[in-house]
Amino acid sequence: MTLPRSTCSAEGVDATGIRDLVDAARAADLDLHSLMVARHGRVVAEGWWAPYTAQRPALVYSLSKTLTATAVALLQQQGLLHVDDLLLDHLPGVDRDAIDPIWSRVRLSHCLSMTVGFETDVEGRVFDRSRPQDFRADDEWLHRVLATPPTREPGTLFTYNQAATYLLSVVVTAVAGGGVEQVLLEGIPEVLEVGEIPWHRDPLGREMGFSGAHVPTGTVLSLAQLYLDRGRRDGVQLVDEAWFDRAAVAFGPLNADPDAGEDWRRGYGFSLWVQRHGYRGDGAFGQFLLVLPEHDVVVAVTSEHERMQSLLDLVWEHLVPAVDRAGSPEADAELAGRLADARIEPRRAAAPAGPDVARLRRADDEPSSALSRAYRASTVRRGPDGASTLELDRDGLTLPVRVGSGEWLESQLEADGWRLPIVASGGWTDDTHYVAEVIAIETPHRFTVEGRLDDAPDDSTLDSTTDASGEVRMTWRLGSLMGPDPFGLAVRTTD
Questions:
Q1: What's the sign of the alpha-carbon dihedral 124, 122, 144, 184?
Q2: Does 373 fall in a domain?
Q3: Residue 339 phi, psi (nearest 5)
Q4: What is the pLDDT of residue 137?
Q5: Please, where are the H alpha helices in 352-407?
Q6: What per-residue string of b and e applies to 7-28 under the rule 16 or more CB within 10 Å gives b?
Q7: Beta bridge partners of 400
Q8: Which of 252, 299, 383, 493 is the right S-S partner for 387, CB 3.0 to 4.6 Å?
Q9: What average pLDDT is seen over the chain?
Q10: What is the pLDDT of residue 455?
């Protein structure tokens, strides 16, 4: 059941605190995509920065770990496993004589709490979605993980890593017969309120577990509320209350990384970080599930930035003091209006400008944030009312992108059996410069395509009916963790 709606003042929250949080995030260029806040189990603030919408799922990166841990909790409630079980007891196909004996001492609780015994994150030695060879149909990531044994005794060292949660995904599949997605959809459908959880998977079809889940912001908030309510929803105990006694507190040694932010040094439970106020699940580039039990508040955020501690600092500075502070209906209305009008400004074309057709070769002097070199060229074709079509050449395959002027237009990129929804805006800014911004709308990420025409010969005049040539640069705003090719982000097939 959808969480009920209320107003900030009715639930004892001063709406100006949330307004100030939004303003401070904008001033700090934290690029919010969505924000939801609930108190006493009622949503008091919600907004999506267009073209992001409430209905679309979004890649939440490592917030996926909290979903995977919740699947483990559901299986424990069914009696199919227990967090104190030995890992290998749930991997019957593994030849124990062929792996390091230390694996026989790893428990599920060690995987949940990042205390397996790794001294570094072994992800780069185990799997890399950006490398095509990692997705051969006959490959088995589990063998790679087990061939990379912990170097410290399980339970004695905290090291945030991806392999630990991947092992949990493998266990869930082995124990339940279905994957993490199936366990969640069958176990807490009234919490998730979605019919699917698109998820990046390994070559054998298992969810990556540590990342890759795509869920709407409302699902993140609803899951946060389930944790705040210690597993109850509408009077029904969906998850055993005892789970939260262990999941939401520091399990083992603290994070010893001297460069970690303050809210990354207070302990780690079962795929949850302990923080100054309550605890959280989070994902790269600013995806947050915040649970503040002392204030009876939960928060969900999606965004794209690399300063996650800064966003938390703003929540503590602006939202937390607003709890139990007198508000007003006027402040509620102002906040609701601000959030309803929130948007990422689309780019506009300068009209008239540019040729009807421009063929742009890939520039050589691009930064490290550039798209994959598989994107060799682009062609820009003029459309009506300042709109244009941008044709991306990906190893000889033409990928058409509809580009709006002053509006975001949607397209579906399709290649290699994958489909990636995008929206784009932009156009010719003058007679020789073209800029389009492209958002992979089910992810935090966007990239820019910038074209510049070659200088025309002194004795020629470029007009709008002439095909022109030039060069193009394609760069990510912030590079995706799934590799430089946008299709690394794709989670939907063309079937």
A1: negative
A2: yes
A3: -70, -35
A4: 53
A5: none
A6: bbbebbbbbbbbbbbbebbeee
A7: 391
A8: 383
A9: 94
A10: 82
Question: Is cis: bond before 189, omega within 30 of 0?
Answer: no
Task: Average the pLDDT over 87-109 and give the result.
Answer: 96
What 3-state DSSP class applies to 378? strand
CATH number, domain of 37, equals: 3.40.710.10
In the chain, the percentage of residues whose pLDDT exceeds 90 is 86
**pLDDT single digits (tens) 27-50:** 999 999 999 999 999 999 999 999
Residues 137, 146: Cα–Cα separation, whole Å: 19
* Rounded-to-integer distance, Cα 444 and Cα 280, Å: 19
> Phi then psi for 363, rounded to 5 degrees?
-70, 155
- Token readout for 50 is 């267009």
Judged against a pLDDT cut of 70, whether residue 408 lies above it is answered with yes
Q: Are residues 91 and 175 in the same domain?
A: yes
Residue 56 included in any domain: yes
Into how many domains does the chain fold? 2
- Which of 340, 369, 394 is where one domain is finished? 340
**One-letter amino acid for residue 138 of the chain:** D
Mark whether 334 and 381 lie in a shared domain.
no
**What does the pLDDT read at residue 1?**
62
Q: Are residues 386 and 478 in the same domain?
A: yes
Whether residue 427 contacts residue 434, with contact meaning beta carbons closer than 8 Å, is answered with yes
Residues 312, 314, 316, CA angle at the centre, nearest 5°?
70
Domain identity same for 141 and 211: yes
Domain stop point among 311, 340, 369: 340
442: Cα separation from own chain's centroid: 9
Residue 129's pLDDT is what? Answer: 54
Q: For residue 149, which amino acid is it? A: P
Q: What average pLDDT does this structure show over 64-87? A: 98
- Identify whether 169 is part of a domain: yes
Query: Under DSSP, is residue 232 helix (H, G, I), strand (E, B) or coil?
Result: strand
Q: Which residues contact 180 (CB under 8 A, 6 or more apart)?
A: 67, 68, 71, 169, 172, 173, 197, 199, 207, 209
Give the separation between CA 442 and CA 421, rounded to whole angstroms: 7
Is position 350 within any domain? no
Same domain, 22 and 124: yes
- Token pair 């309120």 is at which residue? 193
The DSSP letter of residue 104 is G
- How would residue 385 be classed by pLDDT, with cut points 50, 70 and 90? confident
Judgement on whether residues 215 and 308 belong to the same structural domain of the protein: yes
In whole angstroms, give the CA distance from residue 31 to residue 33. Answer: 6
How far apart are alpha carbons 160 and 71 in whole angstroms?
20
Mean pLDDT for 144-163 is: 95
Question: Are 252 and 282 in a shared domain?
Answer: yes
pLDDT given for residue 479 in this prediction = 92
Q: Which single residue is written with the structure tokens 């994957």? A: 179
Token duo for residue 418: 């994958």
> Given this model, what pLDDT does residue 459 score?
45
Residue showing tokens 């955020």? 301
